[in-house]
Amino acid sequence: MIRAIVLAAGKGTRMKSSRTKVLHEVCGRPMLWYVLRTLRAAGVDEILVVANEELEAQIAHFGVGSVLQAQRLGTGHAVRVALERLEPRAEGRIVVASGDMPLVTEEIFRSAIAALDAEGDEGTVMALITARMPLPSNFGRIVRRGRCVERIVEVSDASADELEVEEMNAGIYVFDEGALREAVTHLRDQNAQSEYYLTDTVGYFVSAGKSVRPVPAPDYLHVLGINDRVELARAREEMNARLCAQHMRNGVTIIDPRTTYLEPELEIGPDTVIYPNTAIARLSRMGTSCVIGPNTRLSYARLGDRTAVRESVVTDSTAGSDVSIGPFAHLRDETRLGDGVHVGNFVEIKKSKLARRVKVSHLSYLGDATIGEDTNVGAGTITCNFDGVKKNETVIGRGVSIGSNTSLVAPVTIGDGALTGAGSVVTKDVLKGERVVGNPARPLTKK
Ligand code: UD1
Ligand code: CA
Q1: Which pLDDT score, from 0 to 100, does residue 191 have?
Q2: Which of 32, 159, 375, 439 is buried most, with the most CB atoms less than 10 Å from its CB?
């Protein structure tokens, strides 16, 4: 059984924020979310987060357990608090990581777990990830003896020679559970920071004749802890590049990944093309051969195949296949567009349903409206849905012609095949096939 302890009780003072550090977002998800997801992907069965009060209050969103570390007395103390909460398991494996490493990869955790159980390493009770990085660095230094680690020295306790060491402690460990439980009871806080260092377990194991296996990370970027907003921006850039690469490998063309802003858990069909300055957020999904952007924002947008959204904003809304939206349109609040709908320039649509092939090509506002198939909504049409107190509905049938600059004073119903003349102000229901004009709109009488 592999369990993980995620250290996240620190406030992250260098973020200069009222929000706890690991809740700051990278590509639309809290940093902690990535660490938890990656641990699960690497085969960890159960995760316990060591939290401060603010994080503890929000931990339910993450689907993991937490334990409050009321006083932050160091990483070794944090692990001890967590172990008191976890039921002891014989032959258990405990992964320890921190919640501020959103770029960590599944392979890093897997390689550390594998190193602990490698054949011929019976005396190994701990594996840890190391990384070569440019100096100066605030990371703890790895002091080696051959293939094994002898101890870890924190920067504040290091000698001048030790500070020259370029192999760093990434802060990712896998322990034999029994050995870890014993070692944490022996930690002392006699050091420059007066903290209980988890890293002192290394020296403890070595002096007890056990060995500690170093596992080099392929790239120090993957283990970068985020401490301030400059590093946060760097992490976002790297994560975004990974997300773009993943979709490009799945057949999506992204013209400029640097100005395409993605999040995890998006679905984008192959042969879709994404133009620059486009953000796609919150579980948006789309089919094949869509065209998105430039200068577009999608948030929880669900699109069919071959749909185009250009220079527009779509939030919490759905469009079918072969739909064309924009340039300069805004769809929001559970708007639903059927197949083949066309929404053109300067059109806002809120909480409305447009059936197949409806056209709203220019300068309109549709709110709380339901529109039947093949209806054409002329330029400048407005649903006057708000009477000063509440929102009212507009229902328009199939094959209707709404003339340019029509005002539809809701609640109002327009029957199938009806027509409104340009500039009509429709205050009463219009019957099926009826033609109305004027302000207030009246039926056209036959001559
Ligand atoms: C730690 C390591 C250092 C390593 C570095 C990698 C120790 C003593 N040092 O240093 O060797 O190079 O990580 O990033 O472990 N935390 C708690 N409770 C505490 C203290 C810390 O939950 O009482 C959490 C923090 O929120 C953070 C993590 O543990 O997520 C690491 O703590 P931090 O103080 O940042 O350790 P470093 O000084 O960076
Ligand atoms: Ca510290």
Answers
A1: 93
A2: 32
- Residue ID of nearest Cα to ligand 1 atom 19: 74
69 touches ligand 1 (CB under 6 Å): yes
Looking at the structure, do residues 291 and 416 belong to the same domain, yes or no? yes
Mean pLDDT of all residues in 247-270? 98
The answer to which of 77-86, 145-154, 278-287, 380-389 has the lowest mean pLDDT is 145-154
Domain that holds residue 27: 2-223
**Closest residue (by CA) to atom 25 of ligand 1?**
10
CATH, residue 106: 3.90.550.10
Nearest-angstrom CA–CA distance, 401 and 369: 15
**Number of compact structural domains in the chain:** 2
Residues 318, 381, single domain; the answer is yes
| Residue nearest (by alpha carbon) to ligand 1 atom 1 | 171
Domain identity same for 12 and 126: yes
- Rounded to whole angstroms, the Cα distance separating 176 from 3 reads 11
Q: Quick one: average pLDDT of 115-136?
A: 89
Residues 213 and 277 placed together within one structural domain of the fold: no
Please enumerate in sequence order all residues whose Cβ is within 8 A of that of 336, keeping only pairs 6 or more positions apart, or say none. 317, 318, 319, 352, 353, 354
pLDDT band at 122 (very low <50, low <70, confident <90, very high): confident
11: closest CA among 20, 22, 24?
A: 20
Spatial contact of 1 and 93, defined as CB atoms under 8 Å apart = yes
Q: For residue 229, is it within any domain?
A: no
Q: What is the CATH number of the domain that holds 386?
A: 2.160.10.10
What average pLDDT does range 424-442 have in this prediction? 98
In a shared domain, residues 216 and 248: no
Is the domain of 305 the same as that of 435? Answer: yes
Give tens-digit pLDDT for 28-55. Answer: 999 999 999 999 999 999 999 999 999 9
Say which residue, 122 or 275, is predicted with more confidence.
275
C-alpha 282/C-alpha 431 separation (Å) is 42
- CB of 171 within 6 A of ligand 1: the answer is yes
Between β-strands 342-350 and 359-367, what pairing exists: parallel, antiparallel or unpaired? parallel
Q: How many residues does the chain have?
A: 447
* Nearest atom (ligand 1) to Cα of 225: 14
Calpha distance 437→203 (Å, rounded): 90
Residue 447 pLDDT > 70, yes or no?
no
Task: Please provide the average confidence, as pLDDT, over all residues in the chain.
Answer: 96
Q: Give yes or no for residue 121 having a pLDDT over 80.
A: no
- How many CB atoms lie under 10 A from the CB of residue 201? 28
User: For residue 119, what are the CA distances in angstroms to 95, 114, 384?
Assistant: 19, 10, 75
